[in-house]
Amino acid sequence: MKTIRLFWLFTVMALMAVSCSDDDNDLESSIVGAWQSEIHTSRIWIFMSDGQVVSEDEYGTYYLNGDRLYISWTDEYGNYEEAFLIVELTSDTMILDELDEEGIAHDDPETYRRINMGNR
């Protein structure tokens, strides 16, 4: 009986691990595409499936860790990093709140809308 309980415990843990990694993959595939800021309409970020991100005058890499987005940028002045809390990410809306050096959100989220670059 104890063996059966352990078997079910390990089975449930394995299923939870698989579902968590599926959630991360869903988030990563959801962010891929072009996003335009509602506040700063000239700010457009393009996230590619290979971990690259570009804007008009910058390029870099990004990765997701849970509900956090990390971007390492390179521009004409050098390299810098940004971190964001992903408040919301749907098929057409992305809301990001910038994190400070301690990982605390600024409580000033910025909304981005998915755009079709073919129509620009």
From TrEMBL:
This is Lipocalin-like domain-containing protein. PROSITE patterns: PROKAR_LIPOPROTEIN. Residues 1-17 form the signal peptide. Keywords: Signal. The keyword Signal applies. It comes from Phocaeicola intestinalis. It comes from the Bacteria. The lineage of its organism: Bacteria, Pseudomonadati, Bacteroidota, Bacteroidia, Bacteroidales.
